[in-house]
Design brief:
Chain A has 282 residues and is α/β, with parallel strands linked by helices. Helices cover 35% and strands 29% of the residues of chain A. Chain B is built from 12 helices and 32 strands. Classes of the chains: A alpha/beta (282), B alpha/beta (552). At the A-B interface, strand 8, strand 9 and helix 8 of A face strand 1 and helix 2 of B.
């Protein structure tokens, strides 16, 4: 990323409506607590800190009212990056876009003084960088991103469930994947949700996934499973493919909507900075 | 050449199917392709699967490009305004049914036009059948009067002179399209397939013992023919058969020793659709020139006299001409040729051989090559008063004519004894013929063509039924016509079809026509279509582009 792009990213801030996390951090939570952000008044109750009594209101109303503030929590950022073989396809390669998007999100988290970590997975957890703060951690994460290779099958359910079962500290989870996993994704995402994580599903597809542009007689080979299928890619056949892909994505979208999970679909041709803006502008 | 662009169809199809041959492709998720039927498919199913609109549009675009390069024209029938019709009126149009066909074609053209109209008979001379008129009925009446003549036709320009000004359509209906008729609409009619008698003549034998008749027949059909030939002269009849291959001409000659003051007829027996050329006529006309020979024998002079015309030598009166050769005549009696001879008032000296030649007579100056006449000597002679000098050498008159009260005299004061090469050259008979022509009135030949002017000698007349024609006469139909001289002697004039009406000259006489009818092409306008094609091509390319963008 160039200077211009980094400057654009520096204006972003990682915010969440209901940030998970327990420790005191920079994310305003809907829960009350101690911060500078005023939330409400409530009647004084014995045991309340006298310093929170609003004496101006008492002078006017002759009632003891206590100021209530929003709670600021710390939410670590977990970046789940699909490194299965299918992410190595496309022009531009999907994994390249996803890695750059992960880097951009990390940079934003770094600027927000949040902790950020990386989990690469395919059918299982391939690599993990625990969430930390700091410039050196950012550099480590960048180095790790640059060494990632796309290989193996995708199994979102297994990989995410495996990670969630460790009981990691609740945080914001960005799952960057093409979600083209015949075995589904429901269990994996659900496992994250059960772990009280805030989840965002970011689907990355290549232009060739969206419109294969193939014609004629073909022997199609699944890049992950190695299975093949011989067919004629006609106009009608491509229409059927696009319908199947649209149905698959519609299922993803519906699932996310039902659970209040943000869902995004990006083409790998999209600029990662632009995608980052779209992700964080919500 | 533009249609060769259609070969690009093959290239487009080849590229298309090469692009669509079986190949291996990796995809991210094969399960998304499960709804598409798997190979093998039947050939028809595969073709159906491979077919796509872009290919169709590409083929259409290439097709339009090919048609555009072929410079297409739209021929659209246009209502004609003014029409000038030139109807061939030559004798060759007498083919069976042809006049009615011409009338029908011409009437169709006149009815299809708004007018004005003009109809010209292209004969010799040309004439109006209907002068320029805005009355359609008048034009049709003129066409109804159409009938060919028995003569040839004049140059086309003379017929076109009858229709000055601008005409929307000038149509020429003819069986012999004139070469280079640019800007005219020529409606060609087929020549008839027939046998034609192309030549018939009777000529004296070189040795002077009799005559030889010659007949030539041309086969202008598509197959070999055996043709009976009959020649008649008075009670004399000659029959023969000729076998003639298609497209060729065969001749036949036979001796004739009968009288010459008859009309000769040659005829072939066929049933072809053009009978006019199956018969030809011949006549010696006013008979032969009777010549009295006096003095020494000179075979070169005799031969030259025979070559000059039909001549018979007589010893007793009457005679038409006296030829005196190297002698001295006692007196002049009628037309006389003095060949190195003297006569009262004309005395020749001893021959000398020097001096330059001079030909005051234009005919001799044009025909003789006097540079070869060096060996010819001249007898000096005193030129009588009133003489007309034809040839002169060294200031002496070599040949001259003079009219005496006893008849015209031509004097040849030349000695050819030491100049045999001149006697054997073409100059000699030409020289003799010129002297004879100065002595005798121009005797018309006996055989003529239709439309050819014949000048009859004083007192002579041609008998046409009850009418006697004197002076000049232009025969209008072929035939053998009887006449009589001023002395009451009978003679015959043979009139034949012009040769060009028998054999199409422009085709070299080997024309074998196809038996089809002439057609009238309506007046047409040619609209170039390439612009429309180009617009069509642009639309197709736009549609193809839109389709491709939509897929993108």
């Amino acid at each position: 990323m160039g200077e211009k792009e980094l400057r654009a990213l520096a204006r972003l801030r990682l915010s969440w409506r209901r940030p998970p996390g327990e420790g005191i951090g920079g994310h305003l939570s809907s829960r009350t607590g101690y911060s500078l952000e005023f939330a409400d008044f409530r009647p004084y109750q014995p045991g309340d800190d006298f310093r929170l009594v609003d004496w101006t209101a008492y002078a006017r109303l002759r009632k003891l009212l206590v100021r209530v503030y929003k709670r600021e929590v710390e939410a670590p950022l977990y970046l789940f990056l699909d490194t299965s073989a299918s992410m190595g396809k496309g022009r531009p390669v999907k994994l390249g876009f996803a890695a750059r998007l992960a880097a951009a999100l990390s940079f934003v988290a770094h600027r927000s003084q949040d902790r950020f970590g990386l989990v690469s997975f395919s059918a299982r957890i391939e690599g993990e960088l625990p969430p930390k703060r700091g410039k050196s951690h950012l550099a480590t994460l960048f180095r790790l991103l640059s060494t990632l290779e796309a290989r193996g099958e995708t199994d979102l359910n297994t990989a995410l469930t495996q990670w969630a079962s460790r009981g990691a500290e609740p945080g914001i989870c960005f799952v960057l994947s093409d979600f083209l996993c015949e075995g589904g994704w429901h269990e994996g995402i659900s496992a994250l949700l059960h772990g009280r994580h805030a989840v965002a599903m970011v689907q990355v597809l290549s232009p060739q996934d969206l419109d294969p542009g193939l014609r004629g007689e073909l022997e199609l080979v699944d890049v992950e499973l190695g299975k093949s299928r011989r067919l004629v890619a006609s106009v009608g056949a491509l229409r059927l493919y696009r319908e199947a892909l649209a149905a698959w994505n519609e299922a993803l979208s519906s699932y996310a909507l039902e659970r209040g999970i943000p869902y995004f679909l990006f083409s790998s041709r999209t600029s990662p900075v632009e995608a980052c803006w779209i992700l964080l502008a919500r | 050449m533009g249609l060769l662009w259609f070969l690009a169809w093959g290239v487009v199809l080849l590229l298309y199917f090469l692009q669509r041959r079986l190949r291996r492709e990796e995809v991210s998720a094969l399960f998304l392709w499960e709804r598409i039927p798997e190979l093998p498919l039947s050939f028809r199913e595969r073709l159906q699967m491979l077919w796509e609109p872009i290919l169709f549009l590409q083929l259409l675009a290439v097709g339009l490009l090919g048609v555009a390069f072929a410079e297409p024209l739209l021929r659209r029938e246009m209502p004609t305004g003014s029409v000038a019709l030139i109807l061939d009126g030559s004798a060759s149009m007498w083919v069976e049914g042809r006049p009615a066909e011409v009338r029908a074609l011409a009437a169709r053209i006149v009815r299809a036009a708004r007018g004005p109209w003009a109809v010209v008979l292209w004969a010799d001379p040309p004439r109006y059948l209907a002068p320029p008129t805005r009355n359609r009925a008048e034009a049709l009446r003129g066409i109804a009067q159409y009938a060919p003549t028995y003569g040839k036709r004049c140059p086309l320009g003379e017929a076109l002179a009858f229709i000055p000004g601008e005409w929307d359509r000038v149509a020429v209906i003819t069986d012999s399209p004139p070469p280079g008729a640019h800007g005219l609409e020529v409606i060609p009619l087929p020549r008839a397939e027939d046998l034609a008698l192309t030549a018939f003549s009777v000529r004296p034998l070189p040795q002077g013992t009799g005559y030889e008749a010659f007949v030539a027949v041309r086969n202008m059909t598509g197959r070999a023919q055996e043709v009976p030939v009959v020649v008649r002269a008075g009670t004399y009849t000659f029959r023969e058969r000729l076998e003639i291959p298609p497209g060729e001409e065969r001749g036949l000659s036979f001796p004739y020793f009968g009288p010459t003051d008859l009309g000769f007829t040659a005829e072939i027996g066929t049933d072809d659709p053009f009978p006019l050329d199956d018969k030809r006529f011949f006549s010696f006309g006013f008979g032969v020139i009777r010549v009295r020979w006096a003095g020494e024998e000179d075979r070169f002079l005799r031969a030259a006299l025979r070559a000059a015309g039909p001549i018979s030598f007589v010893d007793s009166p009457p005679w038409d001409l006296t030829v005196a050769v190297r002698t001295e005549l006692a007196g002049i009696d009628g037309p006389t040729l003095l060949w190195e001879s003297s006569a009262p008032g004309i005395r020749l000296g001893e021959p000398v051989g020097t001096g330059d030649w001079e030909a005051p007579d234009g005919a001799l100056a044009q025909t003789l090559d006097l540079s070869r006449w060096e060996g010819v000597k001249i007898h000096p002679v005193a030129l009588p008063e009133g003489a007309d000098v034809l040839l002169r050498r060294g200031g002496f008159p070599a040949a001259f004519t003079i009219f005496t009260p006893m008849g015209p005299v031509a004097v040849c004061a030349l000695s050819f004894a030491g100049a045999k090469e001149v006697l054997l050259s073409p100059d000699f008979p030409l020289f003799v013929r010129r002297l004879i022509s100065a002595l005798l009135p121009p005797l018309p030949g006996g055989t003529h063509g239709v439309g050819e002017a014949i000048f009859l000698p004083p007192g002579a007349a041609v008998i046409l039924g009850d009418e006697e024609i004197t002076g000049s006469w232009i025969p209008q139909a072929p035939g053998l016509y009887r006449g009589k001289t001023g002395e009451g002697a009978e003679f015959w004039v043979a009139v034949n079809l012009p040769y060009g009406e028998i054999v199409p000259l422009e085709s070299g006489g080997t024309h074998v026509a196809s038996p089809r009818e002439g057609t009238v092409a309506p007046a047409e306008a040619e609209l170039p279509l390439w612009r429309a094609w180009a617009w069509g091509l642009l639309l197709v390319l736009l549609a193809e582009g839109a389709l491709a963008l939509r897929r993108w």
